[in-house]
Amino acid sequence: MPFTLATWNINSVRLRESIVCKLLEEEAPDVLCLQECKSPVDKIPMDQFRALGYTHMVARGQKGYNGVAILSKLPLVDAGGEDYASLGHARHVAATLENGVTIHNFYVPAGGDVPDREVNEKFGQKLDYLTEVRDAFHANRPEKSILVGDLNIAPREDDVWNHKNLLKIVSHTPIEVKHLAETQESGKWVDITRQDIPEGLLYSWWSYRAKDWDEADKGRRLDHVWATSDIANAGHGSRVLRAARGWEKPSDHAPVFATFDL
DNA sequence: ATGACGTATTCTATACGA
Questions:
Q1: What is the b/e burial string over A69-108, where b = at least 16 CB atoms within 10 angstroms of the residue's CB?
Q2: Domains of chain A (ranges, CATH numbers)
Q3: Does the pTM exceed 0.90?
Q4: Which single residue of A28, A48, A112, A183 could bond A134 by disulfide (Cβ 3.0 to 4.6 Å)?
Q5: What's the whole-number average pLDDT of chain A?
Q6: A79 CA, B13 C1': separation in Å?
Q7: Is A150 a catalytic residue?
């Protein structure tokens, strides 16, 4: 049975409960992975989501920051959440579907402003986080798995509005791209979005600070859908719901979708 | 080059986002 999955950095699930419901009603993915819920798990507004058919949730949360959740119409089994780099943050959760597919939902650290770990501890934490994830996949090679989330790195030249201008901007520096590539390689992950849409500019995030985000279009592709190579050929139908960036009181991220025939 | 905006908590200021 094919299923459709979406990943969305929601930037407060409680403040944006209404647009989460709008997405669930209008697009009806089978599974929705959220990042930056900024809420303890027990304060996520599950009743509204449940009423729309999303009766299953696996989540990790904390007060104020971070937080990841997997909402689903399909039954889920909690497959754990790891505190990579021992930051004490809720940035990862995994769940397994009845078809045996495990979904990993990540919110990788943003990394601060200065791309130098000697002067900016957060940048080092971002690199260390990716290194720990890389080593975990190397030690235990995933199979039948999907990895989604806000990875906070736009790896390709056509994942950003201006490659040259962003080479020294956190999210597009060569060392971050290298760390992300090593993490991808260690799990034999296939970038499903770029498998489906191999060419051309593609973004999933636009800053709140632009006067007209749509007109300026200074975006970055920070949100990703990967799958292990054994199921990558089942992935198709990738798209970014750019319109959601223009909804009322939007997140600065747009949802990214993919469908898997499994 | 800078600053632009938005959210949550510590709440009329600060930390964080990228």
A1: bbbbbbebeebebbebbeeebbbbbbbbbeeebbbbbbbb
A2: 2-261 (3.60.10.10)
A3: yes
A4: A183
A5: 97
A6: 40
A7: yes
